[in-house]
Amino acid sequence: MRAKFEENYLKCPTSRGGRKLDETRDKYGKACRRLHRAHNEYVLLLAEATECERALRTAALPALLDQQRRLGEAMASSWKGILVEVAQRSDFGTEKFKEIQNKIESTVQNLRPQEEYKEFIDKYRSPPSTPVSFNFDESLVEDTSGKLQPNQLTVDNLTVEWLKEKLTELETTLQDNREKQTALQGPEIIGNGVCKNNSTGMTNGVNGIDRHSPPPIPVTTAEPVKLLELRVSERKCARQAEMIRSALAELGCEEAPSGCPDLSAETVGVDSLDGSSPDHQDRSSLGSKTSMDALRLHLHSIVPPKPFFRIFTRPFRRKSVPSSPALPPKTYRSSSEGPSDSVSVSETERSLVDQEWFHGVLPREEVVRLLRADGDYLVRETTRNHARQLVLSVCWGQHKHFIVQTTPEGHYRFEGAAFPSVAELIAWQRASGVPVTARSGALLRRAVPRETWELNNDHVQLLDKIGRGNFGDVYKARLLPTGQEVAVKTCRVALPEDQKRTFLQEGRILKQYSHPNIVRLIGIAVQKQPIMIVMELVPGGSLLTFLRTRASNLTSRTLLAMCRDAAAGMRYLESKNCIHRDLAARNCLVGDDNIVKISDFGMSREEEEYIVSGGMKQIPIKWTAPEALNFGKYTSLCDVWSYGVLMWEIFSKGDTPYAGMSNSRAREKIDNGYRMPAPESCIEDVYALMLRCWEYEPEKRPHFHQIYTIIDNIYNR
Ligand code: ADP
């Protein structure tokens, strides 16, 4: 799966957001999860086997031997009793019988059962045996890039929850087991399962018993086998629980590391944004130099050059974190200030949002891209099992993520002192020079501020609702620091986390583009819910509505100019290997002077070719090329087909394509060669171009640069 993922990653230079890549990444992630769990199961089973073997050697076998001895002893005693009785009752009165009786009596009296079995154990015990060791087969983890260590539990984001569940399960079994033992053994057993009246002396002389060996089996009780089983099971569970506990304890307050490398900056090492090379690079263990270079190139193509975002002149800079030592913890906790009184949640959050290093729910891929040198840090927010968590991300050798711990008093800490607010905690952590955790050694040196495109939610003032998107409403809004009017797409708070990521995906794609015919991204606001994508406000709104409402004022020349704008935008996208996949009049916007801008990148993919595998839901059938509908195969030439339909919509001034036909009927007719007739008053050359866009074979369709030239020629004629 990793090989497939890497292959996909390398294949498509700008494909990090691609669906195909997403799918292989997803499969790779799942495979990693299965592998890591299987690994942990294996490690725990080895421990279990070791315990079973030791129990057999040190408890079961000695107990068996001892049982034999006792049986022999008991039999001898019984026989003695029988013979005594026989002797006592056999008085036949005669001298001869008296003589016989005396003989019998003295012989019987001379029977010594204990003496008979004194040598029993020494005589019959098994020869000394060497403990069997159960070794981890190291070859199994050879190609896991060090993620899995022989015979060591793996604690990462793929396994941490599983380990915690397993621990709870083991603890419950242990408790249950102890109760059963107590019930079986009654007062003979003390709490920890040790036999109080251990008088058998069984361990003496038994080979291989160490001080950790289980207590001897109380063979006189009614259910020795059951007890033995319980003891062995207790030992197994206790050992496994201990292994898990210490593995989890090692993690401390660190967020479980990623178990599935993402080929992101976290593993690849990214040059600085403007292309200069920082000395902090190449942490990857993946790939050859060539593939590394290719990967770095990918990342460069994903990471936008800084000046692009300078359009928005840093209005949100805050004072930086003080470099002078912060006050010690006690200063923050005067006796009159109870923590819960002095710092309410909202106050804490407000001060947090004001910190330049607080990045809200910024996706981890972006976080990792921002932290480049040792000591770089930022704070972000994540949700785990529906609970909100604050995470300190630090670059220290690699990217480390520490969960901010909350004390019962509502204070915040890592391993050291606790503070009433996260801002104070971070300030102290930095000024004191104390590592965040002793294990990580990570020091805070440079707070990484929000980038200009990471907007503060409080700076976005929503005004009027202007549209409704797939994920939430779209608003006209004002950016408070500058007063600039913008359009804001909001994401419904209740949507699950993966949908929110998908929502932000549009922002990540748009972030890279700068073209007058592509709607411009201003930023994303992810510090609070609802998360938002902030874009330039395109005053004319949706092209479809515009065409329908202004039909009478639109000349052929204006319509042609609109087609040319759309072609220019699409030519730009094609050059960036971006397939829009949802090009239609409803997804274009109209700006001043009727300029058309391509918008709605919710379905876009940055790939040369994109194959849909998991079913085709919500496909705009009447705009989609046959090869995409029939085989799920998308390329820019599919966008060309949609562009033909867009031209048709423009020249018919907002009519519905294939009017009166259902989706399936339209699809069927197209497959049989049907094409829409030219809209009324559409000039011949334009219709001819539409027909070329609707060529059944994609290779026969023109590319966008050709389309642009054709339209420009018609326009200038
Ligand atoms: P989604 O991608 O979630 O479906 P859309 O991009 O289709 O959302 O936006 C829904 C509507 O919001 C559009 O039809 C348009 O009317 C309006 N809209 C979206 N973006 C802008 C913008 N940048 N400027 C003006 N109006 C916009």
Automatic annotation (TrEMBL):
Keywords: ATP-binding, Coiled coil, Kinase, Nucleotide-binding, Phosphoprotein, SH2 domain, Transferase, Tyrosine-protein kinase. One of its GO terms (biological process) is morphogenesis of an epithelium. Transmembrane segments: none annotated. SUPFAM superfamilies: BAR/IMD domain-like (SSF103657), Protein kinase-like (PK-like) (SSF56112), SH2 domain (SSF55550). It is an enzyme of class 2 (transferase). Belongs to the protein kinase superfamily. Tyr protein kinase family. Fes/fps subfamily. This is Tyrosine-protein kinase.
